[in-house]
Hints:
By secondary structure, the chain is an alpha+beta fold. It is about 45% helix and about 15% strand. The two termini are about 25 Å apart. Magnesium ion (MG) binds near residues 190, 317 and 444.
Amino acid sequence: MNLPEMFGENVFNDSVQKDTLPSEVYKALRATIDAGKQLDVSIAGAVASAMKKWAISKGATHYTHWFQPLTGLAAEKHDSFIEPEGDRVIMRLTGKSLIIGESDASSFPSGGSRATYMARGYTAWDPTSPAFVKEGTLYIPTIFVSYTGETLDNKAPLLRSMTALDKQAKRILKIFGIECKKVFTQVGPEQEYFLISEEEYYKRKDLVLTGRTLFGAPVTRGQELEDHYFGTLKPKIGDFMRDLDRELWSYGVLSKTKHNEVAPAQHEMAPVFSTSNIAVDGNMLTMDVMKKVAHKHGLACLLHEKPFRGINGSGKHNNWSMSTEKGLNLLNPGDSPETNTLFKLVLAAVVKAIDEYQGALRASIASAGNDHRLGADEAPPAIMSVYLGDQLGAIVDSIVKGESYTAAKAEKGGIGVPESPIFPKDATDRNRTSPFAFTGNKFEFRMLGSQANVSDANICLNTIVADAFSEFADELEGKKDVEKAVNAIVTRELKKHYRIIFNHDGYGPAWEPEAAKRGLLNNKNTADAVPVLYEEKNIEVFVRQGVYTRAEAIARADIRLENYTKIINIEALTMIEMVKRDVIPCVSDFIAELCQNAASKQSLGVNIPCRTEMKLIERLAELNDKASDAVEKLEADLKQIDKEDVKSASSAMAHVIIPDMEAVRACVDEMETLTSADYWPYPTYYDLLYSVK
Ligand code: ADP
Ligand code: MG
């Protein structure tokens, strides 16, 4: 394989555009992509025709507008290129079909922002993310809006948030005398996932219907030996990863790093970072391709945040930065950050944004699946904080305390191996327990769930930082002594928002009470986290930055709660069915066999001990009754919930239904450890986690 040659072979990328488009058209398209100039619609016909010709040469017969509705998944509807001409057909893609498509909006979540009778929705081309051919179809990345112009997807607001940040960041740069065409936000999303045998997967209704196991006694060997992380790859996994890379590269996804993760059967893929909307599209594509490639290898790829209890779940670290088209990274501290005024101002803006909108940012990553990870000492806590590391932490401390800062000399890190080169210690150590950590020239937002569309988090991040920039720019524009004014802002804001900075262990028991003392929010589940989005200031910031209208902001919060409620409802119903139809009957059969064995021993007349059978019969019968009672309570509580009222319904799901489900699970998991393997109706954690060779 000639990797540089095959990379992006299925993408209508810059070089293909250059080769296939008339030069005027190419230039106009680039102006839209590079400088954010409004798309010149008159070029659409020429682009469509070149794109179609190229796609056909790649084996495409269909095209689709590819969009990201608020289901969190990608959506596609395939149309063939054919158009009748006499008794034959020709292949056609018009400029109009490239730039606009019609789609029934009433079947996608809208949070009530659009009445169902106004079912018309439009998809519109996003020329900044390149089209590609996959499985015989030309995929055209698009945004999705309603007839009345409300956004119905994740991409339109992401693009708006990028525009907002671009605009405000350029104002800041201008104050420092730096001119540029565009400030881009960039994202590198690290994707964690599980691979298990597909055969075993289809034997578990809970995995198929909810993405996670609703039961499962812990396996005797979990992750305690710490031997899976970075361990050698099993042959089947290695084959999968090779195929995955091959496919991702062909679609222009910069798959860079692959390795085993902490939990058994858990793995990770990290791409090289790219412009936010391209990174999001790439990540959506990655999740889809992972599932399909897994199937080819007889595997099931689990993207749920917590497929198994007792071992780590999966997240998606969102590495985030801002950079001009010339490559000036706004988060690059340089050699002496203490005197780098621009960097300090940018840092102060980020710290201010995260503190002021900690609730909104926490809500942006809230989901039923992610609730299992946050605060469980495997992922950051549900409390937002910022980690700066030793060097930046000391600089900020000195600013806040008004002390002078002396740079600590980089320590020579002698390792006692004379053959090895001596390396100086890094300025920032790693802190894996922080939700939002500075890592050299970017922030790593670590709270995202593995199956999330990372748009949500980035929409929020871009918007709140843009807002902080705009406040600073308002204050600084027209000031004579910029240096002095900037330093005053930096000191004031870092003092004001100092409470959000936490450079220590986020998993330790000390942090929760300390965070409470600092007045930081600690919303542990989605039902409690999302309602902050209805607060006036959390609506206003999106409206002010032109990212959401008021109606859109409220609709998004509604959809989040509605979606959470639906997921817990499905989980509860699945659990009820599994217990009633499979677990209780199987355990009952096993009890019957034990009774028969005991009875036949006793029927011999001599005194043969039956203690084992009797003890098991007693415990299992008791647990089976308890399970049955717990299921009845769950069913009854579920019926009580008024699902029309999203706020009360989601709260009841979190505070009533989830504890009910816990009670059911406790009985079932104990019964699993006592029931003969021959009787147990489902593959166990051992079967699921250790059966891939
Ligand atoms: P770390 O070792 O700190 O996790 P890596 O260099 O391995 O950092 O990068 C992790 C992820 O961060 C990768 O996806 C990488 O492309 C991305 N990344 C690196 N630099 C940046 C940046 N400036 N902006 C956004 N993402 C970045
Ligand atoms: Mg990382």
